[in-house]
């Protein structure tokens, strides 16, 4: 496909920033403001929808003038998610419901995307992607599943299902709603992974990984994890084709990158056990992988395992002594570990009763003052009884 398709499918266009986000230093400090889940900002008015193409707009307007049309009127708007944030309208009917594409198929569409002011930001006569893999804008991925073969539809989407709070520099501003005109051209089963050549497998896995980087940069960590998981499935799938040693090495390199980025995304969602597993899988292949060591240390630290985390971060720092991020994290952990030991010592002291040791002598002293009279009385009593017994013996002899 042409280079114009890259932004829509999150391909090469967002990759430079995404790669930066996935680096050790950048990933840990990379933060994006959470998008408000309850944002119900108004969609563009219907009369503005078709501004990108005059004839389509006239058709839309004529349909609005005739609300008494039959129920199957193709101009009817469908609220896809029931929230008003994503709507679809059929402009040209397709070949019937049975012709709809299935998830997992490779579909080809004609795409034209415009902003609310009508300016065209995307145009691709033949964009191909795997349906349901989130390889493209969510608005496109969700709505194409509802299209029939040969159908042309208009899609109005809130920024949430397009480029979100960040937008896409330089042509799509933050929080921009988009109008998509889409025609479904073709749908076919995706190629058998077992029959892919080494080069094809590497290319497919990298495209999925790059899409994960795009979602990571958008702070959509759930979709990032989805893309990395798909990439790993592609890499791990069995093959009936022999790969060269170079291709095997490159596949392993892509696998390690996916696992590292997967761990970073899982860490963002506080999925500590899953992140730890991802880090360990990297370290099985590359025991001195700095990113995996660093993230494993962070995961253990988040779980309060400072004693285990510190030597792992020290190992990472030994491999890259100039890394400021590792330095900062290690310093923070050493302090937390010292604080933890102080708290534990104090807790043990309280459990053993040592804090009250100063009052113990007082108790002993009190006990001592009472014990002396009792001993004296006991002794005096014994002497008295002995005297009585002696008297009785003497009297008996007499």
TrEMBL record:
SMART domains in alphabetical order: TPR
The keyword Mitochondrion appears for this protein: yes
Stretches with biased composition (Acidic residues): 26-41
Biological process, per Gene Ontology: negative regulation of apoptotic process
Transmembrane segments: 374-396
Reaction catalysis annotation: [protein]-peptidylproline (omega=180) = [protein]-peptidylproline (omega=0)
GO CC terms of this entry: cytosol; endomembrane system; membrane; microtubule; mitochondrial envelope; nucleus
Native source species: Meleagris gallopavo
UniProt cross-references to InterPro entries, sorted A to Z: FKBP4/5/8-like, PPIase_dom_sf, PPIase_FKBP_dom, TPR-like_helical_dom_sf, TPR_2, TPR_rpt
Gene: FKBP8
Chain intervals for the UniProt region annotation (Disordered): 1-74
This protein's name: peptidylprolyl isomerase
Biased composition (Basic and acidic residues): 48-62
GO molecular function terms attached to this record: peptidyl-prolyl cis-trans isomerase activity; protein folding chaperone
Compartments where found: Cytoplasm, Cytoskeleton; Cytoplasm, Cytosol; Mitochondrion; Nucleus
Lineage, top ranks: Eukaryota, Metazoa, Chordata, Craniata, Vertebrata
